[in-house]
Amino acid sequence: MTLQTTFQRPESMRDTVTHYCPGCTHGVIHRLVAEVLDELGVRETTVGIGPVGCSVLIYNYFNCDFQEAAHGRAPAVATGVKRVRPDLTVFTYQGDGDLASIGMGEILHAANRGEKITTIFVNNAIYGMTGGQMAPTTLPDQVTSTSPLGRDVGQVGWPVRMAEVIAQLRTPAFVTRVSSHTPLHAVKAKAAIKRAFTLQQQKRCYSFVEVLSTCPTNWGKTPVEATKWLEQSMIPYYPLGVKKDVG
Amino acid sequence: MAKMLMKGAEAIGEAGVRAGAQAYFAYPITPQTEVAEYLARRMPEAGGVFLQAESEVAASQMIFGAAAAGARVFTSSSSPGVSLMAEAISYLAGAQLPAVLINIMRGGPGLGGILPSQADYFQATKGGGHGDYHCLVLAPSTIQETVDLTFEAFRLADKYRNPVMLVGDGMIGQMMEPVDFEGREAPPRGDVSTWATNGCKGRDPHIVRSLFLDPLRLEANNHELQAKYDQMKREEVRFETYQVDDEPEVLMVAYGTTARIACTVVDDLRAAGRKVGLFRPITLYPFPEAELRALAQKPGVKQVLVVEMSMGQLIEDVERVTRAAKPISFFGRCGGIVPSPEEVLDAASKLFA
User: Which of B55, B67, B200 sits opposite A44 (nearest CB)?
Assistant: First the structure.
């Protein structure tokens, strides 16, 4: 009998040990991006821009050139790369504290200028790396270490729906929200990521993929409970689907 | 080519283009917005990138990205804008990226004013951002010297893979003087092939970062940086002296526009038979420590007078390096007021007992 390899590590990923917590879906999302880079054959002409947050060490997992940006500044850094090297594929990978809080200015302006880059926005409704603080995406009444009685929308406002915010801008080409918490959702997420990178290859302007993600550690849940919470609490507030596609 | 009459800010823009800058990212702020206005037309003509950013924070991070992709890049701003760039400057230094930043200083603190100042000396030379780092800091006193040092700034940024800051004051940004670009060529690029993130075809991936979670690795990075600063101290110190050969009784120390005023005062006092001279640092970092100390220690030198457009910042370096060899006095105007030769002359005259 001949053994055939049917599943292996994408070339765009390194063979290394993960630092992500059990049940976190960053690893899944990394892999989906890496598979897309492989399938489009752009690994050797790609520059990724990392965030500050749980995925700050993203460059340890990707087998392509990477820059580590200051907190929230990845879209400005990516702008610098793409403007001087329009031939390269450039993407930012950012969490919700990085992108929707400290980096709100940079993301909106990069999107509105129509930078020919792709953003992978990982939304897990909490600050992970610093240990579970409230994010702009934290759900109403969600308990975090800095909203110990639950998010009070009367005091701190409602969670930001970033995909909808970006989709309001006239310039961006493709804005969508997907999830990563089940295999079926991961398959759909990959299709969205592939469309975003394909548009960039076609020199179409800005593409944005929001990916809902789990954080069992800081949500205080088991991985299985976290998956359920994402399904039952996050998706109703953050509806999945394409928000804008200029076709 | 004949000399051209140019405003300082426009001369900086032209010098950047001729020095081979591939991109300029900036945000408008008085008194140097003319750099951006000039480059909005000129950069595309020269095949380069001009982009108006949404803030100085973003402009300086665009510089980071473009520099890390291997491009020769620069930005310009004025004091409040440079405060916003402090984050990126620290990251540029930590990640060892070459970039040129120009600060046409205006009065502060806070929003301050829009007139000339030298009150960002500490910010430029002692850090401004977080962590153990230094920019190499150049301080021209004429528009021609501003042009020449802009070319040098790009060469030095590449040589050290370190941010280089050129500081002028509002006078340098706004004044018009004849400038000559003849014989001034773009310095050759440093080798970016070993570190730039521009696609990993045919090599292992490059990572540009300033994050080192292992404390020993981070300490090693700090030592690498310090070795560069030590090399700058050995190889890049620049200064100028005027009328110091006879060990002037009063030695003035000033830089930039203030040094030009001090030159006038030296001439006036010399005409009146007073022995006075000037020491002008051109590199504010590395500071010309040994040279100033040696001069201040000459037996004929009795007094040192530091003149600044600030409440007294350069004077701290003068005190540090002369080790109290001689009494040090200070004359400064601030808030955007340029000291008049008469008031500086008064301050110097009082030191001749």
Answer: B200
Q: Which domains does chain B possess?
A: 4-235 (3.40.50.970), 240-349 (3.40.50.920)
- Is B207 in Cβ contact with A68 (below 8 Å)? yes
Three-class SS state of B209? coil
In this predicted complex, what is the ipTM? Answer: 0.97
- A chain contacts of residue B57, beta-carbon cutoff 8 Å: 73, 76, 105-106
Is pLDDT above 80 for B353? no
The confidence score (pLDDT) of residue B143 equals 98
Which positions 22-51 of A are in contact with B (Cβ < 8 Å)?
43-47, 49-50
User: A26-245, what's its fold?
Assistant: Rossmann fold (3.40.50)
Q: Which residue of B has its CA nearest to A78?
A: B65
Token readout for B87 is 């984050």
C-alpha distances in Å from residue B290, one per residue of B138, B140, B233, B284, B317:
18, 21, 10, 13, 12
| Contacts (Cβ under 8 Å, ≥6 apart) of B342 | none
pTM, two decimal places: 0.97
- DSSP code string of B155-186: HHHHHHTSEEEEEEEHHHHH-EEEE--TT--P
Q: Is A90 in contact with A49 (CB distance < 8 Å)?
A: yes
Query: Is B201–A44 a contact, with Cβ atoms under 8 angstroms apart?
Result: yes
Tell me the two tokens of residue A225: 């409970």
pLDDT at B1: 65
Alpha-carbon separation of residue B117 from B129, B271, B311, B337, B338 (angstroms): 20, 29, 10, 8, 8
Q: Do A85 and B87 touch (CB under 8 A)?
A: no
For chain A, what is the HEC assignment? CCCCCCCCCCCCECCCCCCCCCCCCHHHHHHHHHHHHHHHCCHHHEEEEECCCHHHHHHHCECCEEEECCCCCHHHHHHHHHHHCCCCEEEEEEEHHHHHHHCHHHHHHHHHHCCCCEEEEEECCCECCCCCECCCCCCCCCCECCECCCCCHHHHCCCCCHHHHHHHCCCCCEEEEEECCCHHHHHHHHHHHHHHHHHHHCCCCCEEEEEECCCHHHHCCCHHHHHHHHHHHHHHHCCCEEEEECC
* Domains in chain A: boundaries: 26-245
